[in-house]
Amino acid sequence: MTTADLAWALHLSVTGTNEVQLQRCLDAADVECYAAVDPVTEVTPYGTEVTALYDSVCLQRAVEWWKANDAAFGIVGSAEIGGLRAPKDGFDRHYTALAPLKQQWGLA
C-alpha cells in the first residue's frame, strides 16, 4: 500500500508536505493489523483475497490515524455539529474484520 492509496481514501493529493505524515499513518496501521493477524510465517497460504482484506482494513485504520490528529483530546466535531467523544478503543472492529486471517490463537 502506498501514500497515494491513503491520499485517495482521504480525498487528498500527496505533496512533499504531507507524504511523511501519510506514511506514518500507514506504518502505524500496518503494525496494528500485523499484530492482530499474528502470523506464524511471513508467507500466507491464501490467495489475493487475503491481501485485499488485509489492505482494506489497514487502509481504513490508516484513515483513522490521519483523522486522529483532529481529535487529539478525544473530542471530534465542529461549531456546527458540536463535539463528539471518540471511541476509547477504535481498533476492535478492525480486529474483528481481520479474525479470518488470524494464524495463532493463544490458549490460557
Give the structure's gist in a few sentences:
The protein has four helices and two strands, in the order αααββα. The model has no long low-confidence stretch (mean pLDDT about 80). It is about 50% helix and about 5% strand.
Fold and architecture overview:
The termini are far apart. This protein has one domain (3-101). It has a two-stranded antiparallel ribbon with strand order 1-2. With 108 residues, the protein is mostly helical. Helix 1 (3-10) packs across helix 3 and helix 2 (19-37) crosses helix 3 (48-68). 51% of the residues lie in helices and 7% in strands.
> What can be said about the biggest beta sheet?
2 strands, antiparallel
Assign the structural class, choosing from mainly alpha, mainly beta, alpha/beta, alpha+beta, or little secondary structure: mainly alpha
Question: What is the beta-strand fraction?
Answer: 5-15%
Low-confidence stretches: none
Count every helix, treating DSSP H or I runs of 4 or more residues as helices. Answer: 4
The H/E string reads: HHHEEH
Kindly report the average pLDDT value: 78
Q: What would the principal axes of the Cα set say about the shape?
A: globular
How far apart lie the N and C ends? Answer: 35 Å
What is the number of strand segments? Answer: 2
Radius of gyration: 16 Å
Helix content: 40-55%
Number of domain units:
1
How do the strands of the widest beta sheet line up side by side?
1-2
